[in-house]
Design goal:
Elements: E1 12-14, E2 17-19, E3 24-25, H1 41-52, E4 57-64, E5 77-78, H2 85-96, E6 102-107, H3 115-118, E7 123-124, E8 140-141, H4 144-160
Parallel strand pairs: 3-4, 4-5, 4-6, 7-8
Antiparallel strand pairs: 1-2
Helix pairs in contact: 1-2
Amino acid sequence: MSKEYPMLYSPFKLKHLTLKNRIVKPAQWVIYAEPDGSVGARVIAFYESIARGGVGLITVEESICEYPEGASNIPHIRLDEDRFIPGLSELAKAIHKYDVPCFVQITHAGPAHNPAFSGTQPVAPSRLDPPAEPQMAVARELTIPEIKGLVEKYAQAALTG
């Protein structure tokens, strides 16, 4: 334990979860998912090496709840189908082997979706014209049923992840 930062290396309780220290690996898109969005050996090796290093918590990179519209580009870890559960389970086992809990960042690209990728226009809570960034396409406004559908997709992704 560091004498200079004793609190950093002390346990932290978050509701029913106790972290061995306060070092958190935040989400970042490392682009190691397989082309189909599954978790493969490269993703597992990356996060396992971080867990082995002694962090208290890992947040797995932005993982999409809808494909292809939820992706800004590829590859993203996918949470939109049950067929991705085995790879996610292997990832969790690799991280938990070092007594490190993990969270998954569930995301949807929204206005950052590239229409060249899927042929569909990006979406947002309201129309974004001009787009937020010059390289982005104009996003169309979601309908109320589409918003409710996306809420359900996030919920289903949480069950998967």
